[in-house]
Amino acid sequence: MTCRSPMPINRDASFVDTLPRNVAVQFLERVAKSPSLEAFRFPDGDTWTSVTWKEAGDEVSRLAAGLMALGIEPEQRVGIASGTRYEWILADLAIMCAGAATTTVYPSTNAEDTSYILSDSECHVVFAEDDEQIKKLVDNKAELPHVAKVVTFDGTVDGDWVIGLADLAKLGDEYLAEKPDAVTEHAAAIEPDQLATLIYTSGTTG
Questions:
Q1: pLDDT tens sequence across 117-127
Q2: Using one digit for the tens of pLDDT, what is the confidence trace for 89-100?
């Protein structure tokens, strides 16, 4: 058995000065530096779908701009009620690039606790995976006064309160047509002490 020697400690912290300003900027810089390289790979039926950094970056920018079009401002909370999937990552990155803060909800969380988390955190928009998650929100809409829009990955849209991911992207396209630098400007404006995410633990709701 061969033991690897420990990695040397780098006591020179000057490299920190050259790091991207924040994670949103880091993501956008990576997209620009390696647009044709594979960024993600996810299961799609019996096959796997590969996504390049440019493809992911374009989609994130469209969704981030869509959130801005809905009136989302820096540090406002945006919820994600979904299982782990590619669209979850896109939503999280879009929220981040818009300067907002992600609030996560486990898909197995019951309707009452889901409503509590989204209400307590004052979420303004919620990404909902499917009809099961949408129903939790619709049934408790009166308890969610701050939620202006629900964006679903796979669920049924109503053309009003509940829209699809493609609908949000279209709003983003229209927003970027008027403000092409909106996403990069919002990302660059994120400060180190700005709220990035709220995570409710299993005991949060009592």
A1: 999 999 999 99
A2: 999 999 999 999
Each residue's pLDDT tens digit, 122-153? 999 999 999 999 999 999 999 999 999 999 99
Structural domains of the chain, ranges and CATH numbers in brackets? 21-198 (3.40.50.12780)
Tokens 């880091």 locate to 26
Sign of CA dihedral 111, 113, 118, 119: positive
Global pTM reads: 0.90
Backbone angle region of 182, left / alpha / beta, with phi > 0 → left and psi within -120 to 50 → alpha: alpha
CA distance 125 to 135: 15
Name, in order, each residue with C-beta under 8 angstroms of 58's C-beta and a sequence gap of 6 or more: none
Torsion angle of alpha carbons 184, 188, 193, 197, nearest 10°?
A: 10
